[in-house]
Amino acid sequence: MRFLHTADWHLGKLLHGVHLTDDQRYLVDQIVEIADDADPDAVVIAGDVYDRSVPPADAIELLDDALTRLVVDIGVPVIAIGGNHDSAERLDFGSSILERQGLHVFSRLRKKPGHVVLEDEHGPVHFLAFPFAEPAMARSVFGKSDIRSHDEVLAAQVESASDLLPDGERAVAIAHVFAQGGDLADSERTLSIGGAETVHISRFQRFCYTALGHLHRRQHIGASNGEAPRHVRYSGSLMKYSFNETGHDKSVHIVDVDGDGTCEIETIPLELRRDLCRIEGTMTEILDGPADHVDPDDYIWVTLTDDGPVHDAMSRIREVYPNALHIERPRRVETNKLQQMTGDASSLSVDEVFETFFTYVTGRDDMPEQQRDILHDALERKHKES
């Protein structure tokens, strides 16, 4: 049995106000091509298909096109679940009809999980769908008042699947959770306050492979006690959705499951239409031209290190980097030092207060002579006016 594992497409995503639909289409096209070449028995999408509960029209059109090409043109079944960004009701619309065509969407929490059985030469493989759900919803669905955490939600979901899994038959779990030990990225929405959002991977002990969504970095989750399930993996998000994810590599997994449930996983990289990069320097250095490792067409976060004001910075930077999205000016004031300076101010002259504040803000040892002269002239004019 072979299937493709992907997750966290976040169609309709905005990055610093810029629509990413064209970038996402470029990547979704690659996934369709990979599926066409690899000839999997299924494509698994582990949640957060959309970025928000009411997705824009172009995101809906992109998903419709991708699913049509996969299910109708290529003829590969798709099994998708809802994530915490998705609207369960919207994503679930028409799922009963579409299931007959090979599109299996499980976005709403039910007493019995979504269950798809595919056959290969060794027999059946069970795909169990565990969509994201809040504890309050799970208490209502399962009739258990003691469900308080996401781990307890997952426990109830897995328990409800137990009678669907005959002994000895292979099973794959699909879930959208924050697995304990996972590496959270900046662009991922926190599921809850405190530690109640994490789930124990021991919940997946019954499954030969667990296809996870929610965490945007590709990663393999293992237990410290050495008793981890065989394969609990995040495929990672479709593309980089935060400048804290610049070091991520984006990919999908091709999973081959043999007759006894042993899995071989091939990671296939995705090529980004535009990368996310950070550059740092003075305005003069930035305008000198792209650094060796930066494509000027990438999405750029600029950290300007100039001490003084910089006029019309973004429009000037976009002459070199047309897709620059953000400019950062580091603040060098340390709170404890600023409080200390405030306490000592009463014993300083006005000139000394300004000069001391300048050194704290800029990190310099003292104020340059030219700037000191400007300060003194300004203070002298102010004194004469008063």
From TrEMBL:
A Pfam family reported for this protein in Swiss-Prot or TrEMBL: SbcD_C
SUPFAM superfamilies with a match to the protein in the record: Metallo-dependent phosphatases
Domain named Calcineurin-like phosphoesterase: residues: 1-100
InterPro entries: Calcineurin-like_PHP, DNA_Repair-Maintenance_Comp, Metallo-depent_PP-like, Mre11_N, SbcD, SbcD_C
Gene3D superfamilies from the UniProt entry: 3.60.21.10
GO MF terms, alphabetically ordered: 3'-5' exonuclease activity; endonuclease activity
GO biological process, one term: DNA replication
Keywords assigned by UniProt, alphabetized: DNA recombination, DNA replication, Endonuclease, Exonuclease, Hydrolase, Nuclease
KW Nuclease (keyword) present: yes
The Nuclease SbcCD subunit D C-terminal domain, residue ranges: 274-360
Physiological role: SbcCD cleaves DNA hairpin structures. These structures can inhibit DNA replication and are intermediates in certain DNA recombination reactions. The complex acts as a 3'->5' double strand exonuclease that can open hairpins. It also has a 5' single-strand endonuclease activity.
Binding partners and assembly: Heterodimer of SbcC and SbcD.
Similarity-based family: Belongs to the SbcD family.
Record NCBIfam families: sbcd
Protein's name according to its UniProt entry: Nuclease SbcCD subunit D
Organism, scientific name: Longibacter salinarum
Source organism phylogeny: Bacteria, Pseudomonadati, Rhodothermota, Rhodothermia, Rhodothermales
